[in-house]
Give the backbone structure.
Amino acid sequence: MIVPEGILCSKSHEYLLEESETEFVIGLTDYAVEQLGDIVFVELPEVGTEYSKGEVFATVESVKAASEIYMPVGGKIIEVNEKIVESPEILNESPFEEGWLVKIESADAHAESGDLLEYSDYKEELE
Amino acid sequence: MGKRTVLYNKHTALGARMVEFGGWDMPVQYTGIIEEHKTVRSFAGVFDVSHMGQIFVSGKQSVDFLQSIVPQDISKLKLLKAEYCQLPQTDGGLVDDLIIYRLEEDNFLVIANAANIQKDFDWLKANIKNFDVTIDNKSQDYSMLALQGPKAANIVEKLGLSIENQPAFFTIKDFNIDGLNGYISRTGYTGEDGFEFIVKNEYAAILWDMIFKAGEQFNVKPIGLGARDTLRLEAALMLYGNDLTEKTTPVEAGLKWSIPVEKIPDYNGKDVILGQIKNGVQKKLIGFVMTDRAIPRHEYDIYFNGHKTGVVTSGGYSPTLDKNIGMGYVDTKDNITLDATIEIMVRNKLYKAKVVKRPFVAKKYKIS
């Protein structure tokens, strides 16, 4: 597993990856998918929906339980990963590459990402 | 922190993820629930179920006593046979569901659910009346290992108990392997052929190691509570606290098959239970498969024709079927029958499901 450079992680285990100045990928960290166990269901939002930071935008269900997924920063959904809806196990196998959740457009991401941690600090926090 | 079984260190050494269950720290999974589930369906798995309770009922009037507290006819239970029983209150609601073994003419072993051991023990004592019985809660002294799956009998044979000498379905016997002794029964909670070993705590770790050594060539693996739940749900076996509670009767739960209407002695809840068998019930347990994409879970509402008809008691992903399945109670007034379409409320949206026969996955017991 390759952890993409420059990702920022939230305390609720979402990651944010910058693709351009205003476009970002959101997913779940390797730690999150490992803790969830076998993921068997993913519910993603509609393209075009806008969410504020901290709002629930998706649900991921493991065999054991349903978990709500929160926006690490506010923004508008511009693409969803249809592949993981068909094959949710991709989240467990490849959380950073194949198993991303959504892409968003956000003008405020930089202003709102102050509480997010760099991956190494995030990992340290988990210890 | 919860109570620990004597195998706690075995689980952590195997990298199990531990969770609290019924007051106990138990392994929920070792490698992954789906993989463990499939191991039990294809090969064999070992479960530490030492959290379950062992209560011994003995004495001259043990039959009469048990007759007064369960709907089943204990007088007809043959020596070394097991029976699936319920423990009803006078209103028919359930204190627990149990397996009762007849070890001797006047000596019975009652297996209680982990979270209910003290409650059941108190209930038994409160119902002694004038019966000449002794009730011994020996749960602290015993450990229990379940070995389940199509290869279970081969592994038990490798342990030294030939196929002919193994207990038949729903019976129990003593075993002694090089001085390690205890009980072995042909019971379980997975829908597969399998055994449960009941041994004194000091033997549990040795037996655990012996089973894995004997089972290595059969691909035996340790299995956590996560897969135990998905396995029992596919087999539509009741989980106390979900499908059975103090607010549900055995008739509502579809356990009529286990209740002999001709049994003569009185027992707690007899009027209600027989009345429901004769006149019907207001709610009944059904099984369903989701036809829309959504996972039903405990306590989600069930809808029929646009109105709420009941509640999901157990639900989740079925690894064997690769479908989402569930059980729940519905209002009998709605006359919901097999193949009917119902809806499950998931995160404020309704998703369709079809009522199906239980079990969801056929049981593979070796009934000789």
